[in-house]
Amino acid sequence: MNYLVIAISAILVNNIVLMKFLGICPFLGVSKRISTAVGMTGAVAFVMVLATIVTYLVQNYVLNKFGLAYLQTIAFILIIAALVQLVEIILKKVSPPLYQALGIFLPLITTNCAILGVAILTIQKEFNLVEGVIYAVSNAIGFGLALILFAGIREHLDLQNVPKGLKGTPIALITAGILAMAFMGFSGLV
């Protein structure tokens, strides 16, 4: 039951993008097309889960053991940067079109605060490794859900007659705000 609460909370109630406002850069930057949103979701999910596992192990078996917990942020950033390089190499070989479509946003996963935030929150919430992985997977699903919904709405908005003063970023920010308010409806679930 505890795992289900962690999952529902991370996906809907405390959505990493819409409620905690982490990962806004790729949320706004890659959400113009559903295809790139799906690709970014996959890349972020892979890095988020892998980063959570590695950072959990580093925190508990290296930093805490040797009294170096104050190096947590620096160590986590270095781990995430290395994992993003790994994802970039894999995508370049496996899916060149997706690699091209993600463009500059792929290296930006390195500075995606949602990934760092999930890694740090896993430690702060004192999750064990299984709970941490469930938390990371659930946050990745929540990130993907928000990103893909937002991309679908933005694609639909491109076909609508939006007033000239609201085209582009202004209507995207208004839409993101409305989407965040919609997710607030889940706040009583857990």
Quick summary:
74% of the residues lie in helices and 0% in strands.
Primary descriptors:
single chain; mainly alpha; 0% strand; globular; 190 residues; 9 helices
User: What is the helical fraction, as a range of percent?
Assistant: over 70%
Strand content: under 5%
Distance between the termini: 11 Å
Number of helices: 9
User: What do the pLDDT scores average to?
Assistant: 91
The total strand number stands at: 0
Radius of gyration: 17 Å
Report on the structure:
Helices cover 74% and strands 0% of the residues. It has 190 residues and is mainly α. α1 (2-13) packs parallel to α8 (129-158). The longest helix has 30 residues, at 34-63.
Task: Set down the secondary structure blueprint.
Blueprint: H1 2-13, H2 24-29, H3 34-63, H4 72-94, H5 96-102, H6 105-108, H7 113-124, H8 129-158, H9 169-184
Helix pairs in contact: 1-8, 3-4, 3-7, 3-8, 4-5, 4-7, 7-8, 8-9
